[in-house]
Amino acid sequence: METTSTTLVILAAGMGSRYGGIKQIEGFGPAGETLMDYSIYDAIRSGFKKILFIIRRDFANEIKEIFEPKLKDRVDVGYVYQEMNSFTEGVSIPPDRKKPWGTAHAVLCAMEAVNEPFAVINADDFYGQDAFKKAQNFLLSECTADRYAILGYDLLKTLSENGTVNRGVCQVNAEGNLTSIVERINVGLKNGKVVCDDDKEPKELPLNSSVSMNFWCFHPSIFRYTQKLFREFLRDNGHNPKAEFFIPIVADQFIREGGTIKVITTHVPWFGVTYKEDAAEVEKNLTGYVKQGEYPARLW
């Protein structure tokens, strides 16, 4: 069935633990725009019809105050709360658990609100218009219950000079489809090599690796599938206060069970704010784009 409506789901419930603040609503653009503003602007001009924010309940008023005045009359807007007990189905939560269950759990929280093909992005990353155009094209013409997509970025263009980052490292086959994705922790550049300080192999990653910046294209079939895997995750890891249910866990299992995830490459340099010190670079990049005429000096 041909669809004409697509939704952008924005993951904005993160704590910003490394950054030390609520970076999702910090202004980086010339007129105080957040990175979310740029993603929403690019999504709207690429044809997305609805924006759905996944947020914490205690953070709802700030988000609404920032975005309602800008977006009303431009696009449909909705909100979903990611809460600790969402979809836990009575499983007891460790008392020392401080935050919800990760990105795949956040997507699951949108189950009641999304019935059409949709894209998922982080709130605190800049992806570039090329990525949104390609995502929209895929969602309208290629996305099915057993075919999803991910935007692949060049690993070297996604590292921070100010510390290590976490990245979903993609293995891609000759047909351009994902064969596996592994979340690697504490990734950084050391002596011209990309190394991971985690408990996985290989410790060193190829310089030309393609990585996920958490920009996905999904069919609504993902929800039931994720719900099933979340049950299994809670059964095996629910007792661990730090265990996280990441989107790559779901994607990897989906591929193993016969699904296809196309890797859509974009060579636009990604940037984001993992650390406070990254902010100056982000502001400089956005100012450069405005000067080049890629974006207006005021988005709204």
Summarize this structure briefly.
The chain has a single domain (7-291), classed as Spore Coat Polysaccharide Biosynthesis Protein SpsA, Chain A. The chain is 27% helix and 25% strand. It has helices at residues 35-45, 60-71, 103-108, 129-141, 222-237, 247-256, 279-291; strands at 7-11, 50-55, 76-81, 118-122, 125-126, 147-154, 165-172, 178-190, 193-196, 204-205, 210-218, 260-265, 271-272.
Question: Which characteristics define this entry?
Answer:
single chain; 300 residues; alpha/beta; Spore Coat Polysaccharide Biosynthesis Protein SpsA, Chain A; two-stranded antiparallel sheet; 7 helices; 27% helix
Would you kindly provide a written description of the structure presented here, covering whatever features stand out?
Strands 1, 2, 3, 4, 6, 7, 8, 9, 10, 11 and 12 form an eleven-stranded mixed beta sheet that branches. Strands 5-13 form a two-stranded antiparallel sheet. The protein has one domain: Alpha-Beta Complex (Spore Coat Polysaccharide Biosynthesis Protein SpsA, Chain A), CATH 3.90.550.10. It contains seven helices and 13 strands. It is α/β, with parallel strands linked by helices and 300 residues long. The longest helix has 16 residues, at 222-237. The two termini are 34 Å apart.
